Automatic annotation (TrEMBL):
<dbReference type="Pfam" id="PF01420">
    <property type="entry name" value="Methylase_S"/>
</dbReference>
<keyword id="KW-0255">Endonuclease</keyword>
<dbReference type="InterPro" id="IPR000055">
    <property type="entry name" value="Restrct_endonuc_typeI_TRD"/>
</dbReference>
<keyword id="KW-0540">Nuclease</keyword>
<feature type="domain" description="Type I restriction modification DNA specificity">
    <location>
        <begin position="56"/>
        <end position="162"/>
    </location>
</feature>
<dbReference type="GO" id="GO:0003677">
    <property type="term" value="F:DNA binding"/>
</dbReference>
<dbReference type="GO" id="GO:0009307">
    <property type="term" value="P:DNA restriction-modification system"/>
</dbReference>
<protein>
    <submittedName>
        <fullName>Restriction endonuclease subunit S</fullName>
    </submittedName>
</protein>
<dbReference type="GO" id="GO:0004519">
    <property type="term" value="F:endonuclease activity"/>
</dbReference>
<dbReference type="InterPro" id="IPR044946">
    <property type="entry name" value="Restrct_endonuc_typeI_TRD_sf"/>
</dbReference>
<keyword id="KW-0680">Restriction system</keyword>
<dbReference type="InterPro" id="IPR051212">
    <property type="entry name" value="Type-I_RE_S_subunit"/>
</dbReference>
<comment type="similarity">
    <text>Belongs to the type-I restriction system S methylase family.</text>
</comment>
<feature type="domain" description="Type I restriction modification DNA specificity">
    <location>
        <begin position="257"/>
        <end position="353"/>
    </location>
</feature>
<keyword id="KW-0378">Hydrolase</keyword>
<keyword id="KW-0238">DNA-binding</keyword>
Amino acid sequence: MNSKFSPIGKLVQLVDNRNIDCKVKLLLGMNIKKEFMPSVANTINTDLSKYKVIKKDQFCYSPMQTGRDETIRVALYKDESAAVISPAYSVFEVIDTSIVIAEFIMIYFLRAESDRYGWFISDGSVRASLDWERFCEIEIPLPSLETQKNYVKIYKAIIAKQKVYKDSLDSLKFICDSFVENQILTGNKKRLESYIVQSDLKNYDLSTSYLRGISTAKKLIESKANTNGVDFSKYRVVKANEFAYVADTSRRGDKIAIAMNQEGKSCIVSAIYTVFEVKKDSGLLPEYLYLWFSRKEFDRYARYHSWGSARETFDWKSMCDVELPIPTIEEQKAIIAIHNVLEERKKIYQQLQSSIQPLCPVLIRGVLQELNLESVK
């Protein structure tokens, strides 16, 4: 064994504290993203005294489905208050924090490389498990404590920034939702029919080649359709600030696929889509209407008012029958400005999220390079 590496089994030890007095009520599970989450288990008549207690800086480990999911199910618990987890899970902790710190171990197991290795060494049973003894054989790099702390500090900085953005998203969303709810309670509702008009502009001259699809996330997306030999002259043109939606609401996760063209140029969509625009000088801003459509309550409304047998549709008449409160233009502009900030911060938050997964391999690569340099010296 390389002296700069150590089997995980020599650095950690199992802990088996049970919730004997049932004082701990918070029951958690663990997902394949190596995160704790509220348990989805049915706990009616369940004896929680047999469940395991997990405390801050302890790990939860599940040996099951490692091969099937190609993921080592391990998570580091960071909350101050204790929680309970299934007795099927193992709980372990660092033996000596002067040798290795828990966060550094967690960074190592957040890498896709670690998951692939766990899949490779898992057994050949139906569950493709990675039992505790085999898990303990996995070797991890062991730099100095100071080096570990430096890399953990970098990781924590990204996580902290992500949390700041997540908190700001929650606050901005609360403002938007509260405004709309207040309008519903106090404003006069108007039928949408008076404010929108259907568009039937076709791409007859083939002047528009920018093809888009529509997602249930209320965004225009790259079309997944096979366009070989397709006659685009029959496709519908969606101009800037116009809307397009798919009338068929079946098999879409109880959501309606509708989007506003906010891309600054015209695009074309399938001829089966419905395209419409907000009437000019009607007192309704397209961005405010988009905000209304973006609410999960509108998804439920559209599904409830969809009709049909094999395929349920939310047709043009149903769209025209939608009622919504329409505040003054000044109020619409104010809430739109907040909503735009919310959407922009969502993008930044998603970028931060996507940077975390590749960050861990980079950090461990840096550790390995430092260890190699030390051995050369």
